[in-house]
Amino acid sequence: MVRPLFPTSIFSGYNRTTLIGQTISHYKITDKLGEGGMGVVYKAEDTKLERTVALKFLAAHLLNDDEAKARFLREAKAAAALHHANICPVHEIDEADGRTFISMAFIEGETLDERIGKGPLPIKDALDIGHQIARGLQAAHEKGIVHRDIKPANVLVAKDGQVTIMDFGLARLTEASRLTKADQTMGTMAYMSPEQAQGMEVDHRCDIWSLGCVLYEMVRGQRPFQGQYDQALAYEIVHQEPEPLTGVRAGVPMELEFIVGECLAKDREDRTGAAQEVARKLRTLSDKLKSGHSTILRTAQMTGAIPSMANAAPTLNPVIVPPPGKSLRMWQALAAAAMLIAVVALVFALARSPSPDPDSRGVRRFSLSHPNIAGAAISPDGRNISFVAFAADGTSSLWVRSLESETARELPGTRGVTSGLRGGWSGGWSPDSRSIAFGTGEHLKRVAIDGGEPTVLCMWPEVDLGNHSGTRFPFVGAAFSPDGERIVFSSWLRLWKIPARGGQPVLLVEPESPGAFYYRPEFLPNGGGSRFLIYTKDLDYEIWTELIDTETGERRRIAPGQAGTYANSGYILHGTTEINGPGIFAMPFSIETMSATGDSFPLNDSGLSASVSQDGTLVYLDGSSIGGQIVVRDRGGEVVREVGESALIATSFSVSPDGKRAVAVVDGELWVYDLDRNVRERLTPEGVTVQAPMWSASGREVLYYAAGSDWMIQAADGSAEAVVWLEKPGGAARGSFSKDGRYVAYSSPDPAGGEAGIWYRTAEPDGSFSEPISWLRTPSQEQMAMISPDGKYAAYQSDESGRLEIYVRPFPEGSGKWLVSSDGGTLPYWSADGNELFYAQGRAIVAVRVSKGEELTFGEPQRLFESQTQIGNFAAFPDGQRFIMFRGGAVTTADTVRIVENWDAPFRAQ
């Protein structure tokens, strides 16, 4: 039976006066669709546009209720602001003959509530409907609108499967003033988030919770929380967990359990943060089901349920609410007696029950949050988690948090820790869980977690790349041997070993061919020895977990994917083989034979950088990605163009003076991008690692530093080979040409020895350049000198205050300086007219107005937009309206670490 797509269940008992047959404004009313406390919905013909519509009238008894009118108007405005296939279109709001009404699209079908009433939905239908709801919510949230009343009765399913979200009567703008308690608790209790049920301030994450409730109800056929009255429902929502879907229905994918669980996290900081992410996960799972790659578990496996409940202890319910007509004192006495009986029964049951087998424990999931985490690892004893986190000024440090503590500790002396690439940070825990090996820009270090300064174990070894020798590559993972005597670490292109107390690195694994990368090493616990090692190998983006016998040198592939880690229960957990593919897989593996015993299967599709403790606690970073895309954003942060192809990592951007081209260092190589045609060309030879590119004033050349060699200058169209511009400065950071081409500023160490600083060279009439002239050298770190368009000033970053900030000084001569940034800043850029300065601050791009008079004055820093990840590098276009940067990437941060205790319980039961 085809029914009109309007929830009749929410229109009952009010406004019995019918309007059928009447014409209101230019709408001829033909039928009644439903009625409720807020109003009545009719089917009507739009006589002007000759289309069928639905008219929603405000109920007669509310015509003098200002708040009801405001809600009615709010619904119209909220829905009318949204243009999305999964949101009911609103045509207009009008008033005729004293009646206020909304005209909206009419669709035939049934409510999701009615459909669930027929029984649980097929998994594929639930995924598709949930995906469409999430997409609609994404559109609303992107407009700053929170629905606040997502439930099956407000979700409409058309005959063709199209899903439409209805009833924005409770919607609020997220930027609106703080809601009153009464306003916040409006909605339908069974679908309210914990913060909504408690009258707390709400945001878009309350809709994520409600969507989780709807997903659960579609799969199980009943709501996750079953309280018979509002107080009981509120208690369940705030304090109790629903039964796992995999425990109440056969054939539920484990991934769906994860998705629903993340939506229903009690603490909204632990909840999935965006509807877009829910939509992506549901779509990914749907695709996996179609291809047969999803993980389906038997009911008892996922829940750890005891097959026989004869000896199970009774459940105690602490909710004590007197029923109507009973005195509180009498009910308390009855409740106390009932509680005593329950306690006696519990003791008796426990006395009769055998001690639980450790392998019968159920899976337990929780999480910790911290801003800008770039990888995490759990200690072998399962008591602490270490992670790298970025501060607002872009500096990184190493943190440790005990699973028994509510707070994390920053380890002293670890500022500048390297977060690693592709697999996040590997952790480098010692076997006794008392110290951590980590990398900085120049050294491998070791730090005790109970205090004390780090000790230097070695300096990064130099690598001869053929054309240029003396190159040092970044740290991307370290591992202690099981006996604690050795450390193996990666410098990207090679694996090295040293004694755990420090010493001279010895080469362990070298590339089989150019372009091969090695990272995330980990020893396998083969009898406590230190013979077998796994690591990630990447050759031309073919990514594998590889095994090496350190005694014989034999190497072989054991699993597709990256960042492998061994779990004592007999699995190797690893990531995907895709640059842009987060997700964790488990592969059965035998320590005795050092080989796989089965195919890999997915654990989730959003995790990265997995590690496992000896007691079976799994830790991973949630929502990270590896690889990414160069993008151009406008001042509001919207992506207006994707540039080139997906890349592992892209840094050091510079935009040509005319704004039509850009250069970027992609995977270490320098590429020139034609932004109008979106084509690229490599400027430097293969194998030459490049830093700090900048355009010449004419836009015809690019100046860059060839790592471990010299400053080079080359025609931007590649028509001529690069020539040496400055010999062996010993390291470099980008700077800029003055607009007239007279000066070039850059950062490097003193050619004659001494402190690094900012230098400049002056162009001579014959095209040559003067010897380097020191502009700024202090005990602090000064870099990124950008000369103003009028050539009178230079902006730069300095850590003289203890953190990186943006300063401006007269250039090339003059005294005085101005502090421009607040709360940290890096990577300054001028607009072409010199009226604005831009810089990065953590995840944000900040703009500062510049006024020119007898001296410069600077306005208050204004955040233009925030990125989802740390802004490691960017460049501003000359017009100041666009910015080029890398989205996602190898060093991507998240705010949540997921912890799964007894993660492998479902598989031990098989």
Description of the molecule:
With 910 residues, the protein is of the alpha+beta class. The protein has 4 domains: 3-105, Phosphorylase Kinase, domain 1 (2-Layer Sandwich); 113-298, Transferase(Phosphotransferase) domain 1 (Transferase(Phosphotransferase), domain 1, Orthogonal Bundle); 373-626, TolB, C-terminal domain (Neuraminidase); 628-892, 6 Propeller (Neuraminidase), CATH 2.120.10. The protein has a 7-stranded antiparallel sheet, with no helix packed on it. Strands 2-3-4-5-7-6 form a 6-stranded antiparallel sheet, covered by helices on one side. Strands 28, 29, 30, 31 and 32 form a 5-stranded antiparallel sheet that branches. α3 (123-142) packs antiparallel against α6. The protein is globular, with a radius of gyration of 31 Å. Mean pLDDT is 79; it is low at 1-17, 173-185, 297-360 and 465-471.
